[in-house]
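Task card 7
Instruction: Convert sequence to structure tokens.
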Amino acid sequence: MKLLVAFAAICLLLAGVTVWHLRSAWQPAAEPPPPAILPSGSSTASVDGPPTRPPTSITIVAPEPTTTVPATASEPVIWPEDPDQRDASRLLERARTTLRTDPDNEAALRDELAALQRLNRWHEAARTLERLCRLHADDVALQFDLAAALLRANRTVEAIAPLNQIVARHPEHARAWFNLAVAHQALGHLQEARRAWDRAIALQPTTEAHAQRGVVLLDLHEWAAAAADFEAVLARQPQAADATLNLSLALWKLGRHAEARHHLRALLDRLPQHVPALNRLAAIDWELWQANPDEYAALRDEALECWRRSLQSDPHQADIQELLLRATR
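Output:
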């Protein structure tokens, strides 16, 4: 008897579960939202700057297909708080709604690109630009924007190919030479970077180009040429701390110690706690004192004082702590 009661209870339970599943399956699906209206007349914004860092054969990776899940009533879109970000997100959603049914709609592609640029989503922006470049294979502006987006997305190797194509067809394109130099420099291609910087500066001698070429020249140990670049920067921006510091290094390597120390002291007069300048001045002083203790006795004390001030500003410098310890033994 007990077995029959238990069997009946189990049957009732299974029946209840079956009915629950059936009722769930009968629920009507939520209706999709009405299609958004795509605004017309949008255009892409120009990306002309480098982001402030290989194989011999470079190929551009084909873009992966973009999959977007449409919003439903049960999954509302959560827009960003910032008004500009919110507007860009809405523009992106409208553009992608159109692109789901018309993948080559140029107006929608340009709206998608503009939104992604405003949202700083450079990896996706590069995909959109690749699609636009396929539609307009001879559009130099689109190729330049593609390379810039790849740089911003840290896809530096891939950026070199479109930039090489641009400068081969348009040797006077100063911004393309600039970005090509940035790409080579970030990848450690020092000779290629130097040649690209030479061309960029010949076409458009900006302070940024001189500063970046100077860094490459320091790595190549071309001290005199590097010093000339940093002097060109300081002629236009006398307060540039990085250029002053790099100039002092080039002058130091050229044996022009007095000039190097003069620039560092002038920098420290303005920025007394500038740690790299303190360490650089201490290094030059210490080297001079070691070479000639009698002539440069005062520089030993200045070096020790610079290291102490440096550690006061930044105590987490194990190498400077070790130098100071050895020097005071």
